[in-house]
Amino acid sequence: MSTVILAEKPSQARSYAAAFAKSQRGDGFISVSDPLLPADTVITYGFGHLVKMALPDQYDASLKRWSLKKLPIFPDQYIYVVPRDKKKQFGIVTGLLKQADTIVIATDSDREGENIAWSIMREGHIDLQHKRLYRLWINSLEKSAIREGFQNLRPGGNYYFRYKEAQTRQISDWLVGMNASPLFTLLLRGQGAKGVYSIGRVQTPTLYLVYLRDMAIANFKPEDYWLLQAECWSGRKKFIAKLSPDHKFKSPAELEEFLLKNQLDFDKRKGIVSDLKREKKSVSSPRLFSLSSLQTEANRLFHASASQVLNAVQSLYESKFLSYPRTDCNFITLNEYGYLAQNLGRYASLLADPAAFQPQMPLAPNKRYVDSSKVHEHHAIIMTKTTPSAAQRAKMAPLEGKIYDLVLRRTLESFMKPYFYEKTTASIKVNDLLFKASGNVTLDLGWKTLESQVKDSELPPLEQGQELTVKLKEKQEQTKPPAKYTEGTLIAAMKTAGKDLSEEDQVILKDVEGIGTEATRASIIDVLKKRGYLESKQNKLSVTPTGIILCKAAESEPLLVSAEMTAKWEKALKQVGDQERSQDNFLSQIKRFIQKMLAEVPGKMQIDQNLAAQVSEKKAQEASLGTCPVCKTGQISDKGKFYGCSNYKGGCRFTLPKKFAGKTMGKRIVKTLINKGKTDKLDGFISKKTGRKYSAKLKLNGDKLELLFD
Ligand SMILES: [Zn+2]
């Protein structure tokens, strides 16, 4: 009779073992002993998932070949398999679990961790009726946290529905992917597109968010507008005041007409300070970090991708320096607050300038950051009790060091005073028109002491009733398109299902439903990049031509692309975890959705001219060897007997031969020629007169091909 602790992966098992008095490594497990533990305890581990869902052809070999006739694929029973490279460990783990009388689930403290453990127990046919089952739930991998966790093990059965939730998510993703990907791929191939088009329950609406943004930018037509401003002089000091209420004039003529109506022009004149308001304002430090807000901030500051940030935080968690990373919570409990408060000096010593940290005295927990009622599974990402030594900090990967520093400052700032400033608003009357100017002056930097420089915008000293010299002027502006998504802003958009909400709004508004989970968003973006639907250039995301085709096709099923609907599904999935909805109920809704898609999409796609045009445009692009060097608009491609320009109908007669001076002109040579204007030295030209071979460079002179000899 024994106790078996089931960890998610070997590194986690080693962290647990290191927290106990004695440990000895075995094959696929670690024996441990400690006064905290019953005699005969072992830690064993998965390699992440040891069990995965089988592919359709493992249900029915004929499903290996995709066919519309074979859809939908709705198995009565889902088959799970153990991949070959994990079979040995699966045998070891299930062997140990069978013998155990007590099992401690110690996989990651989240839904996916639950799924990993319960899937192994299910496929291993572990008879849980006759075993005691516990759950280890921790927020950090430090020795003290692990020991505390083992002293306070929770009943394992309490988490069963978290596993059901994760499993429902997994099956739903399987059903959508296994049915929608063949459907769309086959239909698109019917339209002439090549390759595989992969559809995902969360992946596709995420891609579509970027697509909508790209479209909004492409369709954006900038418009000029004019503003009326007043240049004001108080003595020799100048400042700008804006018309109040502000108005955008469509043309300079409209602005001048407005001036005329108010008996004004652009000459110098007098203005009066009609009102002067001084207000003391304050700004609290930002909320503590959840994973997504950390991903957004680290992308903004360091241009790191969402998965790079997740990997860095995970590594800092495994090094025991940061708390559990995959959290969507911005709060800590009094517990964490207590130990942070007692060790502020130690944490501050890690700052570049430790003296810059001045806590607000007397210390007291602030509800903005410390609220036990808002911490459900994991608290915000903060530093653990273990602080890195100078040598350990130097050894951190560059991004890890930056992220540790970011979390350190954000956490310490929550112990500092707000930033206080005085805002001065001056109203200036010019005839009957009112202009307003404002300036900010810092009173107390507060938490901003740990941030970069704050720029004040000071107004010159003014008095009520003061007379100023004023010159009105017009300022031309242009409306701006929305900004491209970055991985940081896309993560934020996924969290709000595309709604434009600040982090502050998200915390305050209840029931903001997002798409994906805190743990999966980074990998969803990665998959979209890997499949070539999304590309990131200079930290800006765009949908690729293949991704555009996918989006245009998927549009024929609005449910498939709607972030809002996906967010509602996410909410329904959480209800499975809270026992407010059954797995069957959720899966039957997914199946109804798939049935509807299979019934409606083929007809809609057939009549979609827009999609057909996109497919042929992409084909032309793929066939293209480059832009025509003569007309600069057509694309050069292989026309069979020669290379020619697609702008033939538009009058461009540029062609290149397939053979020149006895040498075959391959696509690579043509590509170099039209893109660079000339080639390197090439062998294989044949003299007509002598029949001898010679080498030369090829050069394009306008539309004429020439040989170049050095
Ligand atoms: Zn041309």
TrEMBL record:
The keyword Protein transport does not apply. Transmembrane segments: none annotated. The keyword Magnesium applies. PROSITE patterns: TOPO_IA_1, TOPO_IA_2. CDD domains: TOP1Ac, TOPRIM_TopoIA_TopoIII. Residues 159-598 form the Topo IA-type catalytic domain. It catalyses: ATP-independent breakage of single-stranded DNA, followed by passage and rejoining. Keywords: DNA-binding, Isomerase, Magnesium, Metal-binding, Topoisomerase. GO terms for cellular component: cytoplasmic replication fork. One of its GO terms (biological process) is DNA recombination. Its EC number is 5.6.2.1. PANTHER family: DNA TOPOISOMERASE 3-ALPHA, PROKARYOTIC DNA TOPOISOMERASE. This is DNA topoisomerase. It comes from Lactobacillus equicursoris DSM 19284 = JCM 14600 = CIP 110162. The lineage of its organism: Bacteria, Bacillati, Bacillota, Bacilli, Lactobacillales.
